């Protein structure tokens, strides 16, 4: 569940609620093509097809989050089948190549119920916000499942991964968009702690984001004008 949050009328950040249907941490067998995030995100470049605005098929629809775990696993596997690194081990530096080889030997990946706070500025504490999110999950669970369940810090922890940060006071919205886009393009597969996302995406993607949004708005404008004339 993706939630865009506004802080003190000046700053946007995002909370991602992961695996809300799980009641504890689980470990599952890891197929060789499913690279854990801590290593997958170290690949030195992205394909050009992944560098633009979120594709139409990546639009997030906030539907019923309380899937049966079996159905969710099927959806998760379908989603991960498309994840392929665009660099082979032989093309990487020795350090990254070793990470790649070690990754292929991993047998388990971690799925952890948690709330990820992705903040490009870390403006202040968000403990109160996290508590509100836990209370929302409790109310949603009771409404959908007709049972009571406690979402406490021990069952739904909050984490603050190190993500790429803005270097000014005006780009929080742009970084928020990039976090969501990258989450779809290069999703976190292994939630074993710590989750390292410092190199999740290169800085030039954010620098181009405003230009891409402007071009998209102009493109839609011209399409609408063309449609009205016809």
Structure description:
The chain is an alpha+beta fold and 230 residues long. The protein has a domain at 1-31 and 104-201: 2-Layer Sandwich (TATA-Binding Protein), CATH 3.30.310.130. Helix content is 37%, strand content 13%. It has a 4-stranded mixed sheet, with helices on one face. It is globular and about 55 Å long. The N and C termini lie far apart (40 Å). The model is unreliable at 36-93 (pLDDT under 50).
Brief overview:
GO terms for molecular function: SUMO-specific endopeptidase activity. The chain is built from 7 helices and 6 strands.
Q: Which helices and strands occur, and which strands form pairs?
A:
Blueprint: E1 2-7, E2 11-18, E3 26-29, H1 37-40, H2 69-80, H3 94-104, E4 108-111, E5 114-118, H4 127-145, E6 157-159, H5 172-185, H6 203-207, H7 209-229
Parallel strand pairs: 5-6
Antiparallel strand pairs: 1-2, 2-5, 3-4
Descriptive labels:
two-stranded antiparallel ribbon, 13% strand, TATA-Binding Protein, alpha+beta, single chain, 7 helices, 230 residues
- Tell me roughly what share of residues is in helical segments: 25-40%
Separate helix tally: 7
- Structural category is alpha+beta
Q: What is the spatial order of strands in the main beta sheet? A: 1-2-5-6
Shape summary: globular
CATH topology of the domain at 1-31 and 104-201: TATA-Binding Protein
End-to-end gap = 40 Å
Determine and state the CATH class of the domain at 1-31 and 104-201.
Alpha Beta
Radius of gyration: 19 Å
Order of helices and strands: EEEHHHEEHEHHH
- What's the rounded overall pLDDT mean? 76
Q: Which spans have pLDDT < 50 for at least 5 consecutive residues?
A: 36-93
User: Judging by the overall fold, what is the CATH architecture of the domain at 1-31 and 104-201?
Assistant: 2-Layer Sandwich
Q: Main β-sheet, in a few words? A: 4 strands, mixed
The CATH homologous superfamily of the domain at 1-31 and 104-201 corresponds to: Ubiquitin-related
Beta-strand proportion: 5-15%
Number of strands: 6
């Amino acid at each position: 569940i993706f939630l865009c949050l506004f802080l003190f009328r000046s700053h946007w950040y995002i909370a991602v609620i992961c695996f809300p249907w799980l009641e504890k941490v689980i470990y599952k067998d890891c197929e060789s093509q499913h690279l854990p995030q801590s290593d997958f995100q170290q690949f030195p470049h992205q394909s050009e097809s992944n560098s633009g605005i979120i594709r139409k098929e990546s639009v997030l629809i906030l539907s019923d989050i309380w899937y049966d775990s079996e159905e969710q696993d099927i959806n998760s596997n379908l989603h991960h089948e498309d994840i392929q690194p665009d660099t082979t081990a032989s093309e990487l530096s020795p350090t990254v190549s070793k990470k790649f080889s070690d990754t292929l030997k991993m047998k388990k990946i971690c799925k952890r119920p948690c709330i990820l706070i992705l903040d490009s500025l870390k403006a202040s504490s968000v403990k109160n916000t996290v508590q509100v999110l836990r209370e929302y999950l409790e109310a949603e669970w009771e409404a959908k499942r007709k049972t009571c369940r406690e979402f406490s810090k021990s069952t739904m922890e909050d984490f603050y991964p190190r993500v790429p940060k803005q270097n000014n006071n005006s780009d929080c919205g742009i970084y928020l968009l990039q976090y969501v886009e990258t989450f779809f393009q290069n999703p976190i597969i292994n939630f074993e702690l710590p989750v390292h996302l410092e190199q999740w995406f290169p800085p030039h993607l954010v620098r181009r984001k405003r230009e891409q949004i402007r071009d998209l708005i102009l493109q839609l404008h011209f399409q609408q004008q063309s449609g009205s004339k016809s």
